[in-house]
Amino acid sequence: MTWDLKAFTSSDSIYFTYNSFGKPDLNYIYKIVNGIWVLDSKRKYDYSENSILKEDITEKFVADTWKNSSKNEYIFNENNNLIDSTYFTWNDTTSQWINNYKTSTTFSPEGKILISLGQRWQNNNWVNNRQYTYVYNSQNQLDTMFSKRWQQNSWRNNAFVIYTYNENGFMTEAVTQTYFGSNISNFSKITYNYENDLLVELTNYAWQNNDWVMQDKYKFTYDENKKLLTSSRQSIQNIGWLTTTQNFFFYDQFNNKVRDLTQRLINQQWQDYRRINYFYDNQNNLITEQTQAWSSSSNSWSNLEKTDYNYKNQKLHFKYTSTWKNNVGWIYSTSSTYSYTDSENSSTVTSQRYVDSTST
Asked: Whole-prediction pTM value?
């Protein structure tokens, strides 16, 4: 395979550095302008003594000068749960950070989210926007989630979801109900059925004419290693449940997925529709992911798209995506190049976009 690298137009390159704890410390973003790499922006990360993220600041490189652009500030509790996240934008006129949006979260002693509150900055005040409240059962499973929105200086109930579980702790039902003034109405429902702790059926319902009406359902089968073998979608028809789409999944002896096959029911006959082929090297690294469509006119598979992966020392080095063009072949569309330093404290990702010279 040959690469016409001259046809690639790089779109951006991101250079990362990491601190001694392996967390992002700084990244630079470069973009191509008139065929020249130009420094565009950078993001700096600041951590506490315990290596907890305190803030990140994005700066734009304008006229050979770094200028503030945006900032996020983070506050964590003693259990390292994020309890406050505030987004700021920079005002060039006043040279000040301006509040924009804030999310405050309350946790239980067990680390479960109890309340999530979103607020916008308006007229020099934090104004409520959205609130989500989470209630748990005696098993610490999510029991109910309430959603509210702020309207006319007061909280208005929006919707809530009730969750049900089986004796093994797996979710069996999720019912969404909505508010209409002071009235509550069912809206949607999802049921989950299991066998041997594996999901085998999922059914969607809608509330219509004061009753639950089935919309569609999905079925799943597995092999002895609990690998997904098949999935299918069924919709309700006049004759009952009708399977309209089915998927088959194939694996090699190393349990790598080698193919996804999708079929659709057309004129009461199953016809191939899409398939994705996966190819691996002798280290079980994914090297090619190829998507094809079934052509009924030629009674054969036709290429659509593929992504190729290249590795060095078991690390992803190069990734490129191609689309298929009839009478031409594979046309490169995008690529990303990954490079790493010997110390592994920095890395670079360069993204490129292919310019198709054959296009008119």
From this structure: 0.82
